Amino acid sequence: MTGILIQALQFFASLSMLVLIHEFGHYITARMVGARVDKFYLFFNPWFSLYKRKIGGTEYGIGWLPLGGYVSLYDSREVLMDEQSATETKLEEAKKQLKSARRKGNSEDIARLEAEVKSLEERIEELKEQQRTLEPVKDELRAKKAWQRLIVMIAGVVMNVIFAIGIYSAMLYTWGENYYHNDDMVNGYLFNEEAEALGFVDGDRILTIDGETIGNVVEINERLLIVDHDLKVEVLRDMEPMTLTLAMEDLVAMRERGGYVNFIGEFVPFVVASVEYDSTKEAGIVEGDRIVAVNGEATADFLSALPLLEAAKGDTAMLTVERNGESAEIAVQVDQNGKIGVRVASVAPRQLEYGFWESIPAGLKYTGKKIASYWEQLVMMVNPDTKLYKEVGGFISIGGIFPEVWNWYNFWNITALLSVMLAIMNLLPIPVLDGGHVLFTLWEIITRRKPSEKFMTIAQNIGFYLLLALLIYANGSDILRLFS
User: Fold this and answer.
1) Residue 223: exposed, middle, or buried by beta-carbon count in 10 A (0-12, 13-18, 19+)?
2) Which of 364, 363, 365, 370 is nearest to 424 (CA)?
3) Strand 58-62 to strand 37-44: parallel, antiparallel, or no bridges (unpaired)?
4) Cα–Cα nearest to 377, from 363, 365, 389
5) Max CA distance (Å), the chain
6) Is the pLDDT of residue 478 over 70?
7) Where among 133, 165, 198 does a domain terminate?
8) Has residue 177 got a pLDDT over 70?
9) Is residue 20 part of a domain?
């Protein structure tokens, strides 16, 4: 339970920062171009607010529904919109009464209600026409030039990208970059059963994937998991290069089965780097010995020997040792913990340190890679063959990526990634999202003609229901996964 609470706290803290940063972008640029800001809210506040305070004409507040936030800009048409909404409510009630009067056959009520319905419908049309023709006042955003409105609309996305760059830069400056490089894996990799089914063999060195060399070992999993075509993987096996062709269908099936967990690990030969126990030294084990079997059972690598030594704990184990091209049998005492007191050499991670000024371009480059990677995933998600649409998740999935223990490095790393994701999602050309507004404004700049109010209303409604459907699908998928 404590772990879940820590996850929830991290998710809430991260979401709050991202929403504030995004909405602050809209807020500050609106103020810069001279548009009046009526409200600036963290989270939505239907019916009531947890906190609100008015300062200099702007109401700052915290809502209770943590699905985002908003900046409300002044619009002189709001009075007319409010009246239209109230009139539409009256119209619906009048229609219900008229329907009831017709069933009862009350001619006097029917005539009165028909006149009332007609009057309300005419008033609604008048209000719509007034909204369409009402000239904006100077402190409205719609009174500003198209390029000024474009700046305000795209500012939230820009702020999220800048925030991600700032986080990654600060992380590189504080912790540096710590990673395993593919070139250092001179003994190759250890593969799980899913990888072996694809054709990999323990000890394979991965040289290229689709002709591209690999740097960070993490890239291997990323390249094999997010695919929309067959891959050609060049490996070095027993000092001979060979090419594996991995079918997209097999890679997708592997991902759906969760086969990416422990997909690869470092292949560590059981070669003695140092001897710690005197009893093992006295038995004749020396640095450089390669242990190829324990009690007659072959050990291809160090990890495969561990369960064999565990089975012999507190007893003597017969080790088959290769030394200078010759083989020997050496009896060694195994302690109560299943250890014989030797160390093996494994690949050390590369550590890159960054000064303050170095960290900024490095953070910019790292953010660019994350943007490209996430965009590639979104594009592939449209292709049903990749089945990436099944991986879509909502708030539960997002909260689940935070660890159950608080770790500042992981917290900032995930927050930066979410900031990139929020920026790209908001830039999608869907009406009601920033990207939709940007698209319509660009159209206005290019054609020098604003889209009609009717078109904008229809587009906004389509965008709203599309976004609602996406939210239901994503969060519904989360719930189904919990039960399955």
Assistant:
1) middle
2) 370
3) parallel
4) 389
5) 114
6) no
7) 133
8) yes
9) no
Query: If you average pLDDT over every residue of the chain, what do you get?
Result: 89
Number of domains in the chain: 4
pLDDT tens digits for range 32-78? 999 999 999 998 899 999 999 999 889 999 999 887 889 999 888 87
E-only strand ranges, 238-356: 240-246, 264-266, 272-275, 290-294, 297-298, 316-323, 326-333, 342-344, 350-352
Q: With the CA atoms of 196, 199, 205 and 207 taken in that order, what torsion angle do they form, in degrees rounded to the nearest 10?
A: -140
Domain boundary among 309, 334, 352: 352
Closest CA to 127 of 79, 76, 80: 80
- Read off the pLDDT of residues 259-283 as tens digits, 9 standing for 90 and up: 888 899 998 888 999 989 999 898 8
Q: Do the domain assignments include residue 250? A: yes
Residues 337 and 360 in one domain: no
Which structural domain range is residue 254 located in?
181-266+346-352
114 shares its domain with 160: no
- Which range among 128-137, 258-267, 455-464 has the greatest average pLDDT? 258-267
Are the CB atoms for 22 and 422 separated by under 8 Å? Answer: yes
Interval 183-212 mean pLDDT: 93
- Strand-pairing partners, residue 185, are none
The rounded distance, in Å, linking the Cα atoms of 254 and 324 is 42
